[in-house]
Amino acid sequence: MKLLVLLLGFGATALRAQDTRTVTEPVIPPSCAVLPARLSVIDETQPDTRRIQQALDTCAPGRAVELNADGPRSAFLSGPLDLRAGVTLHIGAGVTLFGSRDPRDYDVSPGRCGTIDQSGHGCRALINGDHVAGAGVQGEGTIDGRGGAKLLGQDVTWWDLAEKARAGGFQNCPRLIVLSHADNFTLYRITLKNAANFHVYYGNGDGFTAWGVVINTPKNARNTDGIDPGASTNVTITRSFIHTGDDNVAIKAGGPTSHITIAHNHFYAGHGMSIGSETYAGAEAIRVTDLSIDGADNGIRIKSNITRGGPVRDVVYDDVCIRNTKNPILMDTHYTASTGPDRDKIPEFTGIVLRNVRIQDGGKITLDGYDDRHRLGIVFDNLRLDMPDAVKWFVAYADVHQSRPGTPNSCFDKFVPMPAR
User: Fold this and answer.
1) Could you confirm whether 246 is annotated as catalytic?
2) What is the full DSSP assignment across 192-245?
3) Phi first, then psi: what are they for 52, rounded to 5°?
4) What's the rounded mean pLDDT across residues 77-89?
5) Confidence label for 2 from pLDDT (cuts 50, 70 and 90)
6) 408 lies in a domain?
7) Which domain holds residue 291?
8) pTM above the 0.90 mark?
9) What's the structural domain count of the chain?
10) Is there a domain that residue 257 lies in?
11) Which of 105, 107, 228, 246 is catalytic?
């Protein structure tokens, strides 16, 4: 390990490279249609898919389809829905939109969803948005993917399938929300829970805002990532609370990915604030600020390997508080989950700055560069270890620059309970 003291001013990396938009708190648009709930108890024979979809199809851009409670009736049941450009799905307070338990509702091709095979991706998502600029999912209500409920006609849950796939193959389970080429998309104040697979994937877009989102899924629910933006630019995830069974946030770079802001968030169980594992198209200009990580497997994490690696650079973490986390800092260029036969996509992580990061207890810090030609370049600008003797280090092929200690960032009000909603 090369341990160097910073030159004066080296740690003053500007926070200019985040989301280039001016992001303000969203406003739910006026309704084009208000649909009253018909169910107080879920009845699989009475899906609401058709009437919700019809309302989305006929709504004018700039307006919202609103799902509302009707007295004791507050439940909607749906299979896959397709959003429309400029149209918001507004889920009202006290309302829950439940995902169908029938795998046939989600089939990409007949009979594939709800199985394990060698290719995966056999299910449509519950909420789908393809080329839907200006759309959104908003409101004080909940979307429940029912990942822990048994599938119709099978004695397994979606999460059981994911566990069985550890022995080989890929589970075909529906994601909760999948967005592709959906510029200027907004998630606002919605609660997402019990996804069968990823909660939110946003890809190939310019402009994504998640504001005040609550994601709450058990920590043992495999492959239930919170929010995964990839191959996109101008992304902001803010004021959100994420407890899940995989990455809390995972920034992916299967296409060029840049100008991302992760600010004022709270993470709980999960696999951390991650970048990767796909980084082969390059991830850069990423800013993570005012973050608490409490009870996760990993904290600040960048992961890739020779089958899917590439450049990750210009990434700044500032004002981060971590506790009760097995791997509070994990820079991993030898991530174990390989894909494909190619072995020429070498991970290279440089320009990584950790400023005012505080680890309140023990754990393992891993700084793993790929080799001597592709070294990890990382700066610790006021990294604070409250219990240094409880921290284990693994360092290989890393150029580590460290500033003189300053005043530790206060974690006094960082760790808060998950919201009740």
Assistant:
1) yes
2) EE--SS-SEEEES-EEEEEES-EEE--TTSTT--SEEEES-EEEEEES-EEE-S
3) -65, -45
4) 98
5) very low
6) no
7) 2-402
8) yes
9) 1
10) yes
11) 246
